[in-house]
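User: Hello, can you help with two protein structures?

Assistant: Certainly.
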Amino acid sequence: MTEETIRIVLADDQDLVREGVRMMLEAEADFRVIGEARSGIAAVQRVEELDPDVVLMDIRMPVMDGIEATTRIASTGARARVLILTTFDLDEYVFLALRAGASGFLLKDATRDQLTRGVRSVARGDALLDPGITRRLIEEYCRVPPASSAAEHARLTLSERELEVLLHVAQAKSNAEIAADLFVSEATVKSYVARLLSKLGLRDRVQIVVYAYEQGLVAPGARDDHLGK
């Protein structure tokens, strides 16, 4: 994907924010900003009209917020990946946006390098997850334990190895890190992740993380070596 042009839509109600982000993105040879939106409804319309690869989505916008816009974009089956831009790393709305179908999030004070790497990662179909921030975020908003039958159903649906991979993904580990931990190749890990997405009807790795917490497969507050126990 890095050698192909990544087509991007910017959605933010602040003109100066859009202008600054556009300047950083367009300094990259493989990026092209093809549209802008000042509201969530406009972002949905731009996606329908322009079919971008990535949408950089603010959360708090007039007319329709970024959460609802993300939900609508994901529900249409559009190939566009939504990358949330937020001011605070524990904004309650970020979790709602991830659950709605966003592929990750970045803080608005991210460096140019973090921004460009993040856009490329999401464009490839990966999730943009910071292990520390994502863990705190999901633990904060997944405190109601699910019915035990939900977790049991997940365990029965997945093979032992699939469940193992799921628990590693839930720690926001990369394919390379998972491969090293499980003594398998990265290609094997990718295959298992694809199988998890298909079996569970999920869109990407972010939703695997959310699923693991919501189904009780990972307990809020649990240490990494107690995941799934």
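That covers the first. Now for the second protein you mentioned:
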Amino acid sequence: MTSLPAKHVVLFASKFGYQTRSFEAAARRLGIQLGYVTDRCHELNDPWGDQAIAVRFAHPEEAAATAIQSLRGKPLDAILALGDAPAVAASYTARGLGLRSNHPAAVDACRNKLRTREVFRDAGLLNPKFRDVALSPAPEPSLLGIEYPCVLKPLSLSASQGVMRANSHQEFRAAARRLSRLLERPDLLLKGNETSRLALVEEYIPGIEVAVEGIMIDGELKLLAIFDKPDPLEGPFFEETIYVTPLRLNVKQQAAIHRAAIQSIHALGLTHGPVHAEFRINDRGIWPLEVAPRPIGGMCAAALSFVSTGKSGQPIGLEELVLRHAVGEDISSWQREPASSGVMMIPVPSSGILEQVEGVEAAQQVLHVTSVQITARLHDSILAWPEGSSYLGFIFAKAENPAAAERALREAHAKLHFQINQTLAVEHPITGKVLNLDS
């Protein structure tokens, strides 16, 4: 019996991404060979031994040209992007190599929050009032016709980094100054582009928030899960915490969310691969916030497991399902498992140096908790929102209903204690920039 040749998939991913290890494990189970395109320094001589192609995702067409040059002529079945920054370069590369992918213009529209709003407006979807604002010189809201409350957003950062609510002229000015300082950070300047000095200002949308996870198959959405976000996301910052599925809304409301997801995805022009979308819901309807052509970020995918009708065996994770689709397998029979599940992205209570973590063992022993993962490293600097974008870790739970899963996450979180030593803010005497010194 002749064995089938191995499939080959290339991941476009940040060098610091959590998800790559999960995809590696899934690929081993499926016998898929993985390659990597990452944003590591091109002058380092393969420090992780994975033969990754080094590019700069801030310049997607250049990154794609580098990747195409290295990948052309090699066996390759699919390209996947993990995270927002790599997605545009991945789409250009796939297109250049003749592989199925979303059009780069569609992916770029998802990456730029202003362009996303323009697309939703032109498609006739529920959309807040919005406009772009230059952060330098400092904007004057009274001259721009800004109404309150509003939300100020950077155009291309992820995980709600830099997103702030303002309820008055004074709060708007303070938020604009804070966002301007954030975008001047060297690590963010390296990721910047021509829009890095612009911000999006939009009308604040009240209501509850949900997230949709799916896979586009031949232009049609296969809905995988709708997540509750039970903690109110009302500002002044928008750090997310708990995701729980299935959604605790009635069947009619869930169907409406499904339709809104299809409309938003089609408006942006996405046709292939994983999608993650966010929505606000209130008395006026369902408001699309954003759509990303990638799976859910960080370690959150571990909150999802799937079973196939007519097939025995253990459930599979989201990463394996995405890989199966990427290499051409029919995934129509796979559905989310019946149990309720959830994840808490452990919030950062304050900026500083993480010195100690206590209570992990007690948190892991809480009924229905399946795992507690602390991803922040001791003695490293951590940043709270809006400057931050990385969590302290993740808590996972699985229970008979969403309420029980949520209770388990909150109880486990209450048992964790983080010692964070504050830093001192000192203004540079010449430049005026604020420097943080360890206290």
